[in-house]
Amino acid sequence: MSDTTQLQAEAQKFRDDFQRLRDSVGRVIVGQQRVVDGVLTAIVAGGNVLLEGVPGLGKTELVKTLARALYLDFRRIQFTPDLMPADIIGTTVMSAGADGRYQFEFRRGPIFTQLLLADEINRATPKTQSALLETMQEGSVTASGTTHILKPPFFVLATQNPLEQEGTYPLPEAQLDRFMFKLNVPFLNRAELNEMVRRTTLGGQSDVPRIMSGDRIMELRTVLEKVIVADPLRDFAVRLVLATHPDAAESGEQVRKFVKWGASPRAVQALIRAARVRALAEGRAHVAFEDIRNFAPEVLAHRVLLNYDGLAENLSVPALVEEIAKLVPEEA
Q1: Which DSSP symbol is given to 157?
Q2: What is the CATH number of domain 1-81+112-211?
Q3: Which of 14, 66, 295, 318 could form a disulfide with 280 if both were Cys (CB 3.0 to 4.6 A apart)?
């Protein structure tokens, strides 16, 4: 079997597994297809996800459903204003050994898992939020001078309420940048609300079959690395990110007028990883321009900071990013 034929076969198997996982989550979650696809894409690509929406839209239920569909260790942390970093990471305590001597012992916190639900993350103070910074980027925890490596795969799926609501703190820019996607969870339409009520209130709830193990997720990542990203597509992703910077030659008039700071280099990496997953999910072993454009708002919007004029105009950053993705030419 040639390398091309083998890669195509792996792409088809990837597509089948991805669809089975999507169908498993869809047994519980009504609608929200783009949100579900975004979460599944990040899981396979090894990224963290921030889900934003008003209370009651099923953000927590989505993560819990995904946990039931995967053979992964799962823990949930409810973020509150009085939560401390040690409540997440763990703490060092003095304990008596078998010989009666006292010694220091590190007791692991709930962050030592594979799938972590950080529920209502923006209700905790910035000091507590920062406890996740190392883990989200490096998959490790440092406590009392000792670095502990978490078992892969590791993901943080966080939910947050809109900042306009009472008792919320804005996430630091450094932490926002560690989320591969920020997904806005919309309200359900009439048909979806009816189906949600049927499933949850009228006895129509379905079981969630377990579909994928952590080992399989790691195997899928090796397939991702084989997906072909041609030089023009890589350059397109780079130019798309540069177009969010007001001082870059690639930026347009709106960006120069309303944007204070553009997306970071992590955004380019996220665009490529997301594009590879989308290509494989459609059974292709090569990335197309549309794959890169597809999740551009979810990858870029939370990494773009508006200036005073942009805030005064109440400019929609996701809409701005969508416009940028349309205006950046495919050929430089």
Answers
A1: E
A2: 3.40.50.300
A3: 14
